[in-house]
Amino acid sequence: MQQPHSNKPDVSPFNGWVLSSRGHSYFTYSQQLLPFVSDESPFYRHRTPPVSASAWLAATETVQFSKVMVYTIFFLNSLITLATASPVPRVLHSSRSSAPLGFASLGPAPPDQSLKLRFGLASNNAPGLEAALLDVSTPSSANYGKHLTKDEVNAYLAPSNETLVAVQNWLSSNNVTAVSSSGAGDWLTATIPVSKANALLGANYETFVHVNSNTSFARTLKVSLPPEVAGHIDEVHPTTAFSKPLTAGPVVSIPARANSNDTQFVTPATLQALYGIPATPANQSSNGIAASWGQFAQIADVKSFLGQFRTDLSSSTTFFLQILDDGHNIQSVDQAGLEAVGTLSPISFDYLAHFHQNLDTQYTIGMASNVTVTFVSVGPDNQDGAFGFLDIVNFLSGEDNIPPVFTTSYGFNEIDGSKGLSTKLCNAYMGLGARGTSVLFSSGDGGVAGNAGNGEQCDTFQPTFPSSCPYVTSVGSTHGSGPEVASDFSSGGFSNIFPIPSYQADAVAGYLKALGSTNQGLFNTSGRGFPDIAAQGENVQIITGGAQVPVQGTSCSSPIFASVIALINDELIANGKPTLGFLNPFLYSNAAALNDVTSGSNPGCGTNGFPAKKGWDPVTGLGTPNFAALRKAARL
């Protein structure tokens, strides 16, 4: 740092500025002096001049460098500096040029509107957790099945003390109070008005409406953070992620395909025959399945379903309910949507959610005989899919005992979310897998168009999340039985966020080689491929509002495969062995234990999509379950 001349004056108490009287003026402030071009006098500045040189000279041409005058000058200078200071420097955190297709801006969000902000803090060792996950999940590893504890997982995902201090100091200095909202402490939650969020995040919140569902929420197209916290925060939500969940089905089923081999409805009995699934009840109290999302599942419908399709089970068999975010538990028949069932008229989002809940509970209870089923109901008040994903996974992560299987039938396009949000969620699923839970997600119902398959446009293939997360098992759909064929709505493809994981590298390479130049330029050849597996997803029978309804979608497929895993887990527990946990390394190293599906495709975006081929493909994955072969692969 350049030093003042030897005849130094007193140090001003204002902002650390020092004035030298060697015939010229110099300003210093703890760092190297930077020249400020002057018309008369060689002023210097740190970043920004306190005032123009000519203005300063005009004001001080008769000043004598007395102690009093020095203080007076610097007092005035400090006031001018405050008035003309440059904006606080910021680092761009995330941005998008416009809202995704299907969303429209209604203008600036009301400044007094309340926002619940989630701050996703950087974990101290996520790569270490990935290594530990693969170590305990790869059958050839000496540590296979030695799942981690909650505390061990949290030690990887927790933020460093440096990160916590930096973020808390930043929030406190802006009068924002945040509380921890995850077991690992890597998520903080604060509720503030839009006006404060705009200032805090360098944002410009607008009200956006999702045209098809007529739901609206506040979002911004740009977020920036101060340099001192930019490296400590992975995600702030809601900001640039437009993650309204798409339903991965089910929808009221179309009539049976002409000249097809799937004219028969799918029921527990047909699935047991097709996949060799036993009807023998499970008997291990520590076994279980958790299914999630939406609003409510009806106990009366479960009872009717068992009375019609599983007469060997007690009709009093039911499920446990966990409610988050003011979720619903509506049991009245008039809420079941009988009019929509009877007329097959357009179905509301809420009604589809009800379909989901009945499907998930009926096919986990009906297929995984006597396995304890917990349904997690998330309230609709936030009108935002990401809050539901965050709250569910953070709830499970904070529990001391979690079910060995978890299945969900919702997702959104990767492009509608954000890289930070997807990565944080994916790491949380990684934590569940490391603790011994198999996490399954439906792949989606828009073919290669993902959510755009629901009437929106696309010029490149659209992967769906969480299916694209390499730490979950993604489930596609099939139909028929002699042999099974890929459902044309079964979403699949390659992630634009996550690279190909090691466990599927050979399988993906083989498919891409066989694919050749087909669809070249429409997808990421270096991305994680999905789905991983498949199961029946058309003409699946459920009971809703007391009526039998055929539905279709990959949301039928995920609970079916989850039930297979739950039954295998039950035998493993009975034999004193660990549960399967994160499935993918096990599945890819035992591909012969699945029924390979080699016909069909998943069209979208004006193309025929990806064709199903021998081996893994991005329509049906490795194939559908063969219970006896999977049981043998699990060393039972």
Automatic annotation (TrEMBL):
Its cofactor is Ca(2+). SMART domains: Pro-kuma_activ (SM00944). Keywords: Calcium, Hydrolase, Metal-binding, Protease, Serine protease, Zymogen. CDD domains: Peptidases_S53, Pro-peptidase_S53. Ca(2+) binds at residues 596-597, 615, 617. Residues 265-636 form the Peptidase S53 domain. GO terms for biological process: proteolysis. Its EC number is 3.4.14.10. Coiled coil: none annotated. InterPro entries: Peptidase_S8/S53_dom, Peptidase_S8/S53_dom_sf, S53_propep, Sedolisin_dom, Tripeptidyl-peptidase_I. Secreted tripeptidyl-peptidase which degrades proteins at acidic pHs and is involved in virulence. This is tripeptidyl-peptidase II.
